[in-house]
Amino acid sequence: GASGRVGPGADPLHVLHEVYGYDAFRGDQAAIVEHVVAGGDAIVLMPTGGGKSVTYQVPALVRPGTGLVVSPLIALMHDQVDALVANGVHAGYLNSTQTPTDRAVVERAYLAGELDLLYVAPERLNVASTTALLSRGRLSVIAIDEAHCVSQWGHDFRPDYLALGDLGQRFPGVPRMALTATATRETHREITERLRLQDARQYVASFDRPNIQYRIEPKVDARRQLVAFIRSQPEGAAGIVYTLSRKSVEQTAEHLRTQGIDALEYHAGLPAGVRARHQARFLREDGVVMVATIAFGMGIDKPDVRFVAHIDLPKSVEGYYQETGRAGRDGEPAVAWLAYGLGDVVQQRRFIDASEGDRTFKRRLGQHLDAMLALCETVGCRRQNLLGYFGEASQPCGNCDTCLTPPDTFDGLVPAQKLLSTIVRLQRERGQAYGAGHLIDILRGATTERIVRFGHERLATYGLGADLSDQDWRSVVRQLLARGLLVATGEYGTLALGEGAAGVLRGQMPVPLRRDVLGRTTSTRVRKS
Ligand code: ADP
Ligand code: ZN
């Protein structure tokens, strides 16, 4: 650190009071700071809002030299650095948006030992002139923020992160830290290996966000459900609505505006000026609802986001957790709401099949989707399922939809058998495979053109499932998909038997299913006012 009042050797707690105005360290912060100040490496897994910044900024202020912060969030560096400077910290950044003159000023300050903190984009560290510059000055600590970007399987993979594994060799003796809010064992392992932090001390905080209420419901009419959900929120609540495609972003935002909701759109295809304007309104004004692709949100510092809604199924539990984690960073009650349907599952299987990558890669994506589906279809506590996914054991939370309104379950063995045997018969007798819609038509005894054309009314299971509605059947299909008893493949999401289906056909295992009654959307009012 170079600041006069909190120079090298200062007491970390004193720095915390002086620079940040906080009374005390929180959670693991004190232990992490102490370890890094003493020269140790650290991997810090802490949920969004957990207070990661302090854990590398304080060591940078206490140790002699400049703290190097690697961050992929170029758009935010300027704001982050401004906020630090406002607190009296000597901070600067190097990235591609700067003029050569501005860059030269920062470089000189670094070499003169005047900087406490230097933010750089990962791609700059792959430029020889940057590493040469850094070697000529003195580093106090190297902090790699958003370290999960090193994970090739993750949704935020950045190739430039792979080269960061060399930093330990290039700057021997400088403590290194990797920080992230993504905490699956898989990501954790990749961070450790690729950033060569095998000897680092691990700090894993609880990932529970108790103030977030999780709610997941079957999609019937996504727009109507979304509007009803937003209207059920307190007046003036700011929120984010995530959807998968740019087109859907625009259509949804437009629809919300026609419903009198102050909605704006955000996706990577919009001109930079529009994106900046929408983001600024979202950050500064009350009650703006941002409809966005996942391009929006990483690093957005708005503590009072009251809800995050998903109208398409996220691709993985990690993604869902990251996105919903943007709600309620101020600790006040917030809601994570998701509506998903069979169409989502089929569409995502199609994406996976069509994606580039080998079989292992596709299988990984498939497993991520299955875990997400299992969260959606669980009859147990959502939070318990979510935390369990991150390897954290917990009790039912009392603050999610399934805890507040335990779902009705029924024995789904017979309907499951009807569906599975229809698939088997079509396959064996005729060598045909179909998607959910047609199979449900057969089971419900519909007389569609397709059924007549193929003579499917002569199948033994034709009309055997007329006791369930179309929606009920869709729910059965989704739940069987979630458990892997069914698999959807190909462009049209044709259904085939999965592992364990034979056991169900023989009646050897129970199939408890949730009964997703229509109207659950409106009848479930779990929010406190
Ligand atoms: P993260 O980077 O883990 O998402 P931040 O470092 O942005 O979290 O911190 C989240 C919030 O918590 C910020 O508003 C920050 O000011 C606050 N905070 C962090 N540490 C403390 C502390 N020791 N005492 C009080 N507030 C803190
Ligand atoms: Zn719960």
Protein topology:
Blueprint: H1 12-20, H2 29-37, E1 42-45, H3 52-62, E2 66-70, H4 74-86, E3 91-94, H5 100-111, E4 117-120, H6 128-136, E5 139-144, H7 167-170, E6 176-180, H8 185-194, E7 201-204, E8 212-218, H9 222-231, E9 238-242, H10 246-258, E10 263-266, H11 272-284, E11 289-292, E12 305-310, H12 317-324, E13 334-340, H13 342-354, H14 359-377, H15 382-389, H16 401-404, E14 409-411, H17 413-430, H18 436-443, H19 449-454, H20 470-482, E15 486-489, E16 494-497, H21 501-505, E17 512-514, H22 520-523
Helix pairs in contact: 2-3, 13-14, 14-15, 14-20, 17-18, 18-20
Bound molecules: adenosine-5'-diphosphate and zinc ion.
Q: What can you see in these coordinates?
A:
The chain has 529 residues and is α/β, with parallel strands linked by helices. It contains 22 helices and 17 strands. It has a 7-stranded parallel sheet, with helices on both faces. A hairpin with a 4-residue loop joins strand 15 (486-489) and strand 16 (494-497). Helix 14 crosses helix 20 (470-482). The chain is elongated. It starts with 11 loop residues before the first helix and ends in a 6-residue tail after the last helix. Belongs to the helicase family. RecQ subfamily.
